[in-house]
Amino acid sequence: MSENKATGRSEMEALCGSIFICYRREDSADVTGRIYDRLVDHFGHEHVFLDVEAIRLGYDFRSEIDETIKVCAMVIVVIGDDWLVEVGGKRRIDDENDRVRIEIEAALRREIPIIPVLTRGASHPTKAMLPASLEPLAYRHGTSIRHEHFRGDMEHLIEEMDKLLVRWKRNQTKPAECREVQPAPEAPSVTAAVSSGAPLSKLPTQPSPAKTDSGLEKWPANSGANLSVTASETAQAVPPILPPLPPPLPPRALTPPPPPGGQTTIWTRKGVIIAAGMGVAVVLVLLVIIARLMSTGGSEKTADRPPVTTSPANQEDAAAQYKLGLRYEKGDGVPTDLSKAAELYQKAANQGYAAAQNNLGVLYERGEGVPKDLSKAVEFYQKAADQGNADAQNNLGVLYARGDGVLKNWDKAAELFEKSAAQGYARAQYNLGWLYDNGVSVAKDSAKAAQFYQKAADQGDAGAQNNLGVLYQYGDGVPKDAAKAAALYQKAADQGDFRAQTNLGLLYESGQGVEKDPAKAAELYQKAADQGYATAQNNLGALYENGEGVAKDLRKAVELFEKAADQGNARAQTNLAWLYANGEGVPKDPAKAAELYGKAADQGYATAQNNLGALYENGEGVPRDLDRAIQLYKKAADQGNSKAIENLKRLTER
Q: What is the pTM of this model?
């Protein structure tokens, strides 16, 4: 582990949800150090990552940067007056191996907020000043940090970052690398990526945003020549592929109370045979001891006997301490007191009681009843896992998947999930299914993923029910069966799983596997939207816009689109932009439309790229710029967007 010379900080892997600071040393090392210190004061040392100093020997620094940024919630790009400096007659930013360029490219691929922070009087770089791969940076809204107003400018920046982090955390209970390995992280039942208590929902098997939402695509209804082929489209029956929930995080009460007198034991026919064999062995040992005593005159030094560390009475004490700890944690017959629960778990854990070690690890992981301490969580999970505790094996696997308290290691996570899943633990079965579903650490195998999801789903795991439903929806690893998918979504939706509610809503909206019922779709979207799920908010907004399943209400549509757009949902940004472009439900505002299309286009959404191209072609809301229009049409056409293909052909064949 190396030390960051600029800050004195020891290098470590970025934690899930970190803030990544990208800067050029010769341009802004001093002011970046001040920015870093202020962010650490507010967000904490472990959540602010100041570039990748500790590239491991023998590893590709490009992939190291990419892996680090994958778990970050946002990236700050510090830009000074020498940011575009030339070396040997060539700008460093034009070098494909430039570290700053690679960091920004990685962030753009992640589609996370990127905040340009201008210092030393620097200006925001324009598109013409940037290489093609960094052009979207020219349209990312930034801020300035001035020496004479440092405190006030930083307060403003932190205030905006707080808002972005709130949205990020809200989304993590729904999706990604961070989805909590339930990372599978945040995050989130793979029901989000791998997590230890919350669920990963099924990650899109294709990158197209159309697989994430309802499929609504709107086009500006203007009279420009290029819009002759861009009439409004209605909702397409796009099947739901929603980001799977992150694998589950550890449930609060992870291990059920054991039977009186010891640890939880599962008795099987094999176990009875073993127990009988042990009984015979005990009898034989006793006979040997008696024979020995008789041969030695019955004398044996107590000091020669191995020390007994835990007597049966002590084991009973440990079980009682553990059970009482559970009662204090849950408020079962006593006032809820997590500190008291931790104290009791600690006493039982000190006697080697695996269930208590696991639950104490959960408290340390969450900072409940004890100060948050991931290293202690790892320590206690490891102790319990070494004794074969399935809960602890899964929870430790989650920490390895997220890189929390340990170096990120998906192979180790997979090994632990396998051990836990073999004991029938549903969360581990879900997490293992997610690994096979997404080809993480294991070869991608949808059939195997379905098998593990099925095992967890049979135990009522909502994330597994949802993800298995997605596989049936598309015939991925299982026979295609929309009715089966609907039944699985229903089970998960009944447990309040917002992804399943949205997926089931899509089936009712399109009539796949169920009788078409827009009103039922609206009801399901509403339940998921009330939980803050952007996809459902967008889809419900579309129903209100078109009066399908609900009374037509453009103001309500705008409200829902805005909520989803504020979370960065590209479809909602596009739908809202369409309303502004046409003055429906809001005053007509082409400039606002262009701004919203730009945000969605920066995420690679083809519909928004095409529509923004139309505005540039007609000079509506933006200066007329045919070159920019062609560029946008080409980006959308490269993704197969039929409207953009026609528009591009018309402009280039003039």
A: 0.58
